[in-house]
Each structure stands twice: as structure tokens, then as C-alpha cells.
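Notes from the 1:1 (GR / supervisor)

We went over the backlog. Supervisor wanted to see one worked example end to end before approving the batch request, so GR pasted a single chain during the call. The sequence is below; no edits were made to it. Supervisor asked that the structure be written out right there so they could see what the output format looks like.
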Amino acid sequence: MDLLKKLVEKAKNELKTIAFPESLEERTLKAVKMLIDQKVLKPVLVGKKQDILVEIDKYSIQKSDIQIVDTEDDKNLIYAEQYYEMRKHKGMTLEKAQKIVKNPIFLSAFLVKNKVVDGYVCGAITSTGDTYKPALHIIKTKPGIKTAATYFIMIHSDKSFGDDGVMIFADCALMPNPDSEQLADIAISVSDSAARLLGMEPRVAMLSFSTKGSASHPDVTKVKNALDMVAERRPDIDIDGPLQFDAALLESVGKKKCPDSKIAGKANIFIFPDLNSGNIGYKIAQRLGGASAIGPVTVGLNGSVNDLSRGCSVEDVFHVGVITALL
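Structure output shown during the call:
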């Protein structure tokens, strides 16, 4: 896939440092071996050093080729002090914080926050909630953004869709029922991320079951309000809505339903109104429409963190590592 090859080459030039807290997991270690061999990024394995050293030998990973952050190292107690200060108003104690930073995912989040690494990848054997909880507690969201969300890069063989067959669907994995302000955050974060990662010039469609007020309903009003917020906060983003999916995707439909729209029929970023529609939509596009889905890619956090599916392949871990290095 040409896009993935381009991202790999871009990552090689930047050579970022990415932590992998699932440091004993088979697919993760096979992907780490690929990342090392292809010199794509600098992987950091987070966990008990003695266990990691035994495991990496099984995958022909040389000790000299990998950095290990030992969860048993007393140097990490500085992060426990940080976590205590962050959460003491929630009842956190220093003793409890010292135990929590021995968790490889929490420790990885502190490595990101303190700029020891550029990001972390997790989720091959960890739930989405446990992957994101440390990030939300420690790394938190970017200034001016209150919402973390995700998107999928959808690649379709029909080059008339999006940008030469490449589209962005959001949010498909994290935010269940965003309000208008959260939808606006998602649209802004996804647009900025797609521009940075893919060089895309965002043309954003705020999706609904109604096109430009063809129906009156609170769910449509939510999307319209989000559109207005984006227009006020970021007038540089080309965005329109509410739009039905076909009106956003197909020029023939867009011209009929809203001929004055600059986005209708030309969208490359599709913001779904809730997680139900987003998750269902990307899976229909993937399973029935034949599109390839890359992701989820996380946006809104003040650091690069990405979640894997527990059904992920070695190649999935490899490519999510690449994307994490580029954000």
C-alpha cells in the first residue's frame, strides 16, 4: 500500500522514540524487531528488565539494539511524586502512587509527559480503557482541546473518493456520545492531525441523517452547533454540515442536495455524530465496501498515544508504531 510505504519512509527520516509497555507480548516483540531492522524508529520496552532480557532473546533482538526502562528501577519514584501531586485532591497517596508507576502503561505515560519518549503504543493484550486511562490522567489533552478522540484512515480502490481514495472517519473508537463542543474539538483535532500526518488539505463534513436542515431534530441541532463552533474557533478549516454521508461523498448527490456547498461531494474528512454511527460506518466501509482501515489514530492528547486491537497482527503493531512516531 503506497500510503503506508510513504509513512514508513517519513518515520525513518524523523527516527522518533516510542515506548511499548506490552514488552513481553509476542506480536509486539515481532513488530519491534521489524522496526529495529528497518530503522524506522527507536523502540523502548517498558517492564521488568530481567523478564524482557529473557524474552527478546527469543526474537533475536540484541540488547544493544533496544532501550529498556525497568519498572523496578528506583529512578521512577520521581514519577510517583508527580502522580501524587496530580491526584492527591482525588485521594491519591504517595504509597499508592509508588505502586501505580510500576505499571508499564502508567510509566510509559510519564515517559511521554516528561519527553523521555515521543509516544507509546498499547492494546494488543490491554483493554482500550486501560490503555487510555494513564494518558488521560497524566498526559491530558492539548491546550484549548477538552476532548480525546480517534480516527481511522480509510483507503478505497475508487480514487474518486476523498483524496485519491483516502478518507478519514472519526470518531470511531473512543467518544460515545459527544456534545456539540466535543464534536467541534474532534473536528479540529482530526483536521490538524490529518494535515500533519498525511499532508491532507482538510475538507470536513459534519455528518447527520439530515442535509442542511432537511429535518428538524435535537441530533441535527447538535451537529449544526458544532459546525458553528468550529467556524468561530478555526475559520481556516474548510467545513460544512449537517450533511448526509452520500451528499458529503458523492459530487452528483452533493450538487443536488446543496449546490452552494464547497464541501458536499468533495469531503475527505467525515465527522460522525456519535460513536455508534462512526464505529458501524467504518466497519461497513471496510467489510462491505472493501476499504482498508488503518487505526484507530488518537487525537486531542498532549502527546502521542495509540491503542491497538486485541486482534491485531504484527503488521498492525508495526504500522501503529509508525503512525505514533509521526504525530
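Supervisor's comment: The chain has two domains: 2-140+301-326, 149-298.
Batch request approved.
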